[in-house]
Amino acid sequence: MPDRPRREPRLAFRGWRARRPFWGGLLLALGGGEILLTEKASLKVVMHIGMQGLAGYLLPTLMLLLGLLVLVNPTQRLFYSVTGVLLSLGTWLTSNLGGFFLGLLLGVTGSCLTFGWLPDQEPRVGRRRRRKRARAERRAARGPRVSAGIRS
């Protein structure tokens, strides 16, 4: 086995993170986790309450799972993000108004970020850099400027 230089862990993580909708998956998972933490009842009470009480635990658990699946399997991000939005909105009715709005907003935001993520996209260039590049191209198209030194 040939010795190859090991990459620094931070650089390896940065490369892994760049190939997937990291922030979208993380926010979706955090939204599900936050909603689960706002649930106060034990599982025995939920089973006695019935389906409505069980859905209060099921939807945020699925949100957490979908957030992790986005990170592990980014090729299916569209399905996971649409399902994540629907589950997040469903927690409005089943889980303390979506974890007191915070979990619901985290889940919807994470799902939208995941839906909008495009693999292998060129990095965006800022407006200043675009203008600077356009000015340089115009100068290059005009050619070198010759100044006539006319004296009176």
Tell me the helix content.
over 70%
Structural class: mainly alpha
**Radius of gyration computed on alpha carbons:** 25 Å
Main sheet: strands, sense, barrel: none
Number of DSSP strands?
0
Task: Encode the helix/strand succession as letters.
Answer: HHHHHHHH
Strand content of the residues, in percent?
under 5%
| Tally of separate helices | 8
Distance between the termini: 79 Å
The best one-word shape is elongated
The overall pLDDT, averaged over residues, is: 86
Unreliable stretches covering 5 or more consecutive residues: none
Overview of the molecule:
This protein has 152 residues and is mainly α. 72% of the residues lie in helices and 0% in strands. It contains eight helices and no strands. The longest helix has 22 residues, at 51-72. The radius of gyration is 25 Å and the shape is elongated.
